[in-house]
Amino acid sequence: MQYLIYGLISGSILATAAVGFALIRQTEGFLNIAHGQFLLLGGTFGYLAVTSLGLPIWIATVVAALTVGLVGVLAAVLVMHPLKGRGPLTLLFTSVGLSYVIQGLVVGLYGTGVNTFPVSFGDQITLGSVRITWGEIAIIAVAAVSIVSLHLFLTRTPVGTSIRAVSSNPQLAKVRGIRTEETSLTVWFIASSLAGLAGVLLGLMGAVHSEMGWSNILLILAATVLGGLGRIYGVVVAALLLGILMDMSSLVIPTSYRLVVAFGALILVLIVRPQGLFTLQRRKQVA
Questions:
Q1: Which of 57, 120, 176, 284 has an alpha carbon 20 to 30 Å from 39's alpha carbon atom?
Q2: pLDDT band (50, 70, 90) for residue 254
Q3: Under DSSP, is residue 36 helix (H, G, I), strand (E, B) or coil?
Q4: Residue 273 to residue 150: CA distance in whole angstroms
Q5: Could you give the domains of the chain?
């Protein structure tokens, strides 16, 4: 049961990151590999806000998430949008290049050290054989509130309606008078902010280091494919399942094989259900 709690924490953080990745994929039409480095930026900014500026962790988390959101908008304006008409493969490889640039800047400025947040997770609560701290409960709650807030934003606001329209049919949305360029920048801000938030949460659970972007983009990709490309809510469920599966596997195999378990599950799903766990396969119409 204890490993189930660990898996829920891991899955919550992964879901926060993966839902932003899926949002970019659905509206922009490509896999943004640089999304992983936005986690690194979030963890780095959060750590600096706590240690250098002396901000409380909750304020540092908000500042880091918003700052990474602005970095995402800047990346979209300066790098991605000028190449938008050249196809998804061009954008994909450009995002890979952007990943190396971001990581190089972070390493150049702050080195390759491993940094842990100087914060306490509070008292530990024991319920039978299960132990959890208030800090871990807060991480799950923050992830849940973020995802629910995104859902409400997409379904209850005019901007959210515009985002769903653009993701469904960009050309038709533009004809209907939706400002697709502004909508795209809104998506970049939201998705990047979620990545920044996930980076802080990851740093709190472990540490902030220069490789956290590359190691986590693989898990984000796995969760996105498992949930079904273009299925944001399916990705959330898949991320939770993947987090639980990886941590529960620690009962029988070493924790160093967590990635092997994740991608083993991904390969199995691709063989049995290539469209993803939560994508409804449409029947082909016969003329």
A1: 120
A2: confident
A3: helix
A4: 28
A5: 2-272 (1.10.3470)
CB 32 within 8 A of CB 24: yes
User: Residue 284 has what pLDDT?
Assistant: 39
The more confidently predicted of residues 183 and 2 is 183
pLDDT in tens, 22-37: 999 888 889 999 999 9
pLDDT > 60? residue 267: yes
Which long-range contacts (C-beta less than 8 Å, at least 24 apart) are formed by 75-79?
Answer: 75/34, 75/188, 75/192, 76/184, 76/185, 76/188, 77/185
d(CA 198, CA 170): 29
What distance in Å separates the CA atoms of residue 245 and residue 265, rounded to the nearest whole number? 9
Phi and psi dihedrals of 254, rounded to 5? -60, 150
pLDDT at res. 133: 87
Q: Which two three-digit tokens encode residue 143?
A: 């992830």
| CA 55/CA 3 separation, integer angstroms | 32
- Residue 11's nearest CA partner among 112, 147, 127 is 147
d(CA 43, CA 215): 14
Cα–Cα distance, 115 to 79 (Å, whole number): 30
Termini Cα distance of the chain: 53
